[in-house]
Design brief:
Blueprint: H1 2-55, E1 75-76, E2 83-89, H2 94-112, E3 117-123, H3 129-144, H4 149-158, H5 170-179, H6 186-195, H7 199-211, E4 219-222, E5 225-227, H8 233-248
Parallel strand pairs: 2-3
Antiparallel strand pairs: 1-3, 2-4, 4-5
Helix pairs in contact: 2-4, 3-4, 3-6, 5-6
């Protein structure tokens, strides 16, 4: 009688082993399926991100160039120039003074004077209270004599005070215009500074900066596309040439 019992026990143990092996195979399949599912989800989201990046971009990217109100901005060069350069600057910004002294003259010589490009300026007054004061003065000059704006622009940067002090006072700004013989009414300049005549226009300029995620000065856009290297003349020249060719093929 003992032999059948041993056979039954052996049979039961075999069944349990088969069940364990079956459960292990099912677990492995479940793990594999979960892993594949996770990978598919990751790939799907990555593809969606790449597609979204191609279709939409931040303002100033090649996918989403900025459309500026060019006719309302100070302009150096021909209005019909095929390449439009837009500088965001703060008259208290030392880096902007460097741009004015090093980069702008080269752009003027190689492109602006030849009618290939025009330079536009957007006030971005954020470094101090007198950033706004300087912008009020510059806007007053612009509205009195648009051609004199750039001479005053250069004078402001060339005579820039310390970034951490309030040097752009009403007296300083008027006296600088007189010293440089800027062809405007100096009494009107003082009045415009004192009464903040162009406060709304300055607010519009700062809004252009904010709406297009401009957070530092100088920032340079070339036909609506932002360059991340405003001091790299080689990169700027390449971007200008690319923009020029794109206009030609339109």
């Amino acid at each position: 009688m003992s032999k059948p019992k041993q056979s039954t026990r052996a049979s039961s143990a075999s069944i349990q082993e088969r069940r364990k092996a079956q459960l292990q195979r099912q677990k492995k399949k479940t793990v594999i399926l979960l892993t594949v599912g996770i990978l598919l989800v990751v790939v799907l989201f990555a593809a969606m991100f790449v597609l979204a990046s191609k279709n939409t971009g931040s303002p100033g990217s090649p996918a989403s160039p900025v459309s500026f109100p060019y006719d309302k901005l100070p302009r150096l060069g021909a209005a019909d120039a095929p390449v439009k350069l837009v500088e965001f600057g703060d008259f208290k910004c030392p880096a902007c003074a460097r741009f004015s002294g090093e980069v702008k003259p080269q752009l003027v010589e190689d492109y602006i004077d030849k009618g290939k490009a025009a330079l536009y300026f957007v006030n971005m007054s954020f470094l101090g209270p007198d950033s706004k004061t300087a912008s009020f003065a510059a806007l007053s000059v612009y509205h009195q004599n648009s051609e004199a704006f750039w001479k005053y622009y250069d004078a402001l940067y060339a005579n820039q005070g310390d970034e951490n002090t309030e040097w752009a006072t009403e007296d300083f700004l008027v006296e600088l215009a007189q010293k440089e013989k800027i062809d405007i009414d100096y009494n009107l300049l003082r009045k415009d500074i004192k009464e903040r005549t162009y406060a709304d226009e300055l607010a519009d300029d700062n809004a252009i900066a904010e709406n297009n995620h401009v957070t530092s000065t100088p920032s340079l856009f070339i036909n609506g596309i932002k360059t991340n290297e405003p001091f790299n003349l080689e990169a700027i020249v390449k971007a200008i040439e690319t923009a020029s060719k794109a206009v030609e093929t339109e």
